[in-house]
């Protein structure tokens, strides 16, 4: 069946039409004519498998990665970077118009990433066996088919070098991939690195690793800390298990962000593209402005944004429900000598409601998960008298739906998209909201 691709989907797939029904075709680009096999069809849409490209896009390029199509993690690696940015800008534009009726002229040009390859400072890779050896890989989209990986071209080069060294040590000690029946073996290799130092977490079954292997891993140049996390739940969305044990080295990996040093634990969230994260923090600080009495950050995590705003206000309060992250943030503020920032362990909506009744909040910064702000948080913001909201989003769809609600009391100001993840369909966006 022949289909002409009219636009791109939110996951990087091409979208064409069969009898006015949208059909999603992974691997196809806008403007291409392709031959497909329909793999799924319901009353609202269909899915198709790309068989052959009949008319190629002039923007199509050969991907550097040999498993790009099977892996599925980098759908835009098949087109040049300028076209990737255009797709992301258009995805954001369409979402904001469709759900929030925002004037698209408010959307500024997307900020490109300085690096389009070798930019990720962390990997979280499943483990499998290939030719008798433990390897990392990825699962094909919507399947249990494991695709072994030799090199990932979006990981920082030093991170890839360390990952391969770790695998060599694990194979020398005959570590095997996880066995669901025995509940033994390695499930995931999680590795993060800054400034040539690395933090490794081995997510495994209920077993003790050989002491000789631990010593050999800790002896690798740049290995700063080594952890084991036991995770035996089969259907858990959480990679880490409830048990975390420091096998050796330092508890935290330290990241220098301007004048602030952030101590980061294995569970801590931090942006995967360090250079773009620095640019985003600077943008947030610019939008927040100076001479604020009180700035509040909801979903503050390890407190990076809150501490970056310490000079913008007399007082900054971060709210986070994860206890480990709050303890991490408090220690960070103390170690950096920052005394006008405090962190509260609480539900974000509940604590914001309490604060908004007691205090006058100048600026609220929210950086929610992909699911966006829940109804409780939206209701609190609307009922409050917070003067300005800075919304940091990684999902144009949930961002737009939230803005549709918030516009009842707030006007949308600047909209600043960032390309945090080149070669993927994801886009990060900062939105300024001013109370009417």
Read across the widest sheet, the strand sequence of neighbours is: 9-8-7-10-11-12-13
Query: Using only CA atoms, what is the Rg?
Result: 23 Å
The overall pLDDT, averaged over residues, is 95
Outline type: globular
Low-pLDDT parts are: none
Give the DSSP E fraction (strand runs of 2 or more residues). Answer: 25-35%
- In the CATH scheme, the class of the largest domain would be Alpha Beta
Helicity, as a percent range:
25-40%
CATH architecture term of the largest domain:
3-Layer(aba) Sandwich
Separation of termini? 53 Å
Descriptive tags:
436 residues, alpha/beta, OB fold (Dihydrolipoamide Acetyltransferase, E2P), Rossmann fold, 3 domains, seven-stranded mixed sheet, 26% helix, methyltransferase activity, TRAM_dom
Explain what you see.
- This protein is of the alpha/beta class and 436 residues long.
- It folds into three domains: 2-60, OB fold (Dihydrolipoamide Acetyltransferase, E2P) (Beta Barrel), CATH 2.40.50.140; 92-114 and 273-435, Rossmann fold, CATH 3.40.50; 122-256, OB fold (Dihydrolipoamide Acetyltransferase, E2P).
- Helix content is 26%, strand content 33%.
- The protein has helices at 68-71, 81-100, 157-172, 211-218, 274-288, 304-308, 323-335, 348-358, 375-383, 396-406; strands spanning 2-4, 7-8, 14-18, 21-25, 33-41, 46-55, 122-130, 133-139, 146-148, 186-194, 197-204, 223-230, 243-249, 253-257, 260-264, 292-298, 313-320, 341-345, 363-366, 388-393, 410-418, 428-435.
- Strands 9-8-7-10-11-12-13 form a seven-stranded mixed β-sheet, with helices on one face. A seven-stranded mixed β-sheet has the order 18-17-16-19-20-22-21, with helices on both faces.
- The chain is globular.
């Amino acid at each position: 069946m022949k289909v002409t691709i009219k636009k791109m989907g939110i996951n990087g797939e091409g979208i064409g039409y069969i009898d006015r029904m949208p059909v999603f075709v992974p691997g196809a680009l806008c403007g291409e004519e392709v031959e497909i096999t329909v793999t799924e069809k319901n009353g609202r849409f269909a899915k198709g498998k790309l068989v052959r490209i009949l008319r190629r896009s002039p923007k199509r390029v050969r991907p550097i990665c040999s498993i790009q199509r099977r892996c599925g993690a980098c759908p835009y690696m098949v087109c040049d970077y300028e076209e990737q940015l255009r797709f992301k800008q258009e995805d954001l534009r369409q979402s904001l118009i469709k759900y929030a009726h925002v004037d698209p002229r408010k959307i500024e040009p997307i900020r490109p990433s300085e690096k389009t390859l070798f930019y990720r400072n962390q990997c979280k890779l499943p483990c499998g066996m290939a030719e008798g050896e433990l390897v990392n890989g990825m699962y094909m989209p919507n399947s249990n088919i494991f695709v072994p990986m030799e090199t990932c071209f979006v990981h920082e080069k030093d991170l890839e070098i360390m990952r391969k060294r770790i695998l060599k040590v694990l194979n020398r000690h005959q570590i095997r991939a996880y066995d669901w029946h025995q509940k033994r073996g390695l499930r995931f290799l999680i590795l993060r690195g800054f400034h040539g130092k690395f933090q490794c977490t081995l997510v495994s079954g209920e077993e003790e690793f050989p002491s000789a292997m631990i010593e050999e891993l800790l002896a690798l140049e740049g290995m700063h800390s080594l952890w084991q996390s036991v995770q035996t739940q089969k259907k858990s969305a959480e990679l880490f298990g409830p048990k975390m044990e420091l096998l050796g080295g330092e508890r935290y990996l330290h990241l220098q962000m301007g004048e602030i040093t952030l101590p980061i634990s294995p569970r801590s969230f931090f942006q995967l593209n360090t250079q773009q994260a620095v640019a985003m923090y600077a943008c947030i600080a610019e939008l927040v402005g100076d001479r604020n009495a009180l700035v509040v950050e909801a979903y503050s995590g390890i407190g990076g944004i809150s501490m970056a705003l310490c000079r913008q206000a007399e007082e900054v309060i971060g709210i986070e429900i994860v206890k480990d992250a709050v303890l991490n943030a408090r220690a960070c503020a103390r170690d950096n000598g920052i005394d006008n920032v405090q962190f509260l362990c609480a539900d974000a909506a509940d604590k914001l409601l309490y604060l908004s009744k007691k205090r006058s909040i100048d600026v609220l910064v929210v950086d929610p998960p992909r699911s966006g702000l829940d109804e409780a948080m939206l209701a609190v913001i609307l009922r409050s008298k917070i003067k300005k909201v800075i919304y940091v989003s990684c999902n144009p769809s949930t961002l737009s739906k939230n803005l549709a609600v918030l516009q009842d009391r707030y006007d949308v100001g600047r909209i600043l998209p960032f390309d945090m993840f080149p070669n993927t369909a994801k886009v990060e966006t900062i939105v300024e909201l001013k109370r009417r």
